[in-house]
Amino acid sequence: MKISPASIKVFALLAVLGVNSVNSFSSNISRRLNTSPTALASTTAKDVVTPSKPLAQQTSVAAVPKFAQRWRKRTKQLATLGPASSSLEMIETLFLAGADIFRLNFSHGSQEQKKELLMMIREVEEKYSHPIAVLGDLQGPKLRVGEFSNPKGEMLEKGQIFRLDLDEALGDATRVMLPHPEIIAASEIDHVLLIDDGKVKLTVVGKGDQYLECRVDVPGKISNRKGVNTPDSVLDISPLTPKDRSDLEYMLGIGVDWVALSFVQQPADIEEILALIDQHLPEGAFRPAVMAKIEKPSCFLGDNLERIVDLCDGIMVARGDLGVECAPEDVPLLQKQIIDTCRMSGKPVVVATQMLESMIESPTPTRAEASDVATAIYDGADAIMLSAESAAGKFPEESVAMQQRIINRVEGDPHYRNYLNQITMTKGATATDAITTAARQIAQTTNAKAIVCFTLQGTTVRRASQERPTVPILSRPGSFGFTADEEDFFNYENPAVDGENDSDFEVVLKNACRAALKKGLVNDPNDILVVTAGLPFGTPGAANIIRVLPAAGPQCWDGVCQVD
């Protein structure tokens, strides 16, 4: 089987959103233009080159690329794009500062603007020959009260009775329209309703077919179109509004890598979006993965959380609405519960919302915020996210760089590995499971610098990263003998990478050395790589070989790594 260099570039994707791993440089999904799931790579065909400089000018194996540490971090970073980060220059800056995945928030801006941002991300991806994932975030239902005759709103007093009804008349100090009959139908006596992110708390004391009588327990001001949260009720509504359905179809057309679903209440909501993707996915187009945003208390009823995790491809701990609808002291425990459930199921999990909130206005975070980010990493999150900090803040680059500094600091702490080892995923009785488990153990025993996985459809690298090894994982795509030109890369004399050697396992191993060298994962001829592959080549899931080899390749002398 032979894959063109152009196709290889299209397959590349970030690990964290494809596998439950803090270590991998590839993902479980093939890239947009591919018609079937294919091997995924953190590097491209450009890693294997034809010599263009004299041997005397060749780069020493000790000359590590400038951004080597950039590729070594395990926990990945999501950065939301917005007014403060909508230029090509800023997107590139954020990528170099540490951003691995960019979030397009479809709650704001036009669809055309999102496409422009996606195309700029692809430019940066192409420039650095490194995969960058794009997550499209659907807005979800927005539940709001109606409008008041006083444009400034009304002040509600503690203990007063306030009515929410379906009457379209403008509201006053005693009532206001609630244009959501599903809330009235689902609410019961003693259920709580939260207005304006919990600034006003109402408790239902009476109800009819078209109204709710509520007691004001937490007084405050209520004004036009303020949001309503229903922590005690499961509403009989779809998580996808007409706008969301339009946005989803648009995402499928432009080729986002992930779709984040808001307002998930129960497993049926995931089934609904999966069916819509099946229905609207253009023929031959890339199928995005689905991420469920956990922000409703109903997700924790019975076995809902486990079933949601099983159905979707990844989870986001959306602490914004979750923090409104749940007690503040419960949110850290729920965060740990979600992360543990995802880790045991082998699904990636992202922790989001207010991670470095003060950096919207300040170039440095509070110590509490730094501790919050570190806690998410210690808990085992695969990724941490920035929202307004990178989208609309004054210091987007500093926010991303600060997250990376915290990641590097935590991952260098011996306690970090101890915490990760406390929970492991359930393993299957397959050859791939056995090979990847052995690869992790060998890498640890030999103090290897990286694990290199050759994969056709991503199965092996997904499984390897679920092992949470102590070293980075580098994946290489399905056709392992290919050629490309790149003047600035390491120059090897007579590289054996022509089409006739596609099944030559020695060429496969040489390419593994080159890829690790380019990324700066190795910097000494004696550095060790653990390589997994499957024979015969081209057979999905056929991981049946482990090789331990010096990163220098078969020949190394005078401090120069020479592969021929």
Automatic annotation (TrEMBL):
Residues 1-24 form the signal peptide. Residues 433-549 form the Pyruvate kinase C-terminal domain. Coiled coil: none annotated. Its EC number is 2.7.1.40. Pathway: Carbohydrate degradation; glycolysis; pyruvate from D-glyceraldehyde 3-phosphate: step 5/5. It catalyses: pyruvate + ATP = phosphoenolpyruvate + ADP + H(+). Its cofactor is Mg(2+); K(+). Residues 73-400 form the Pyruvate kinase barrel domain. One of its GO terms (molecular function) is pyruvate kinase activity. This is Pyruvate kinase. It comes from Cyclostephanos tholiformis.
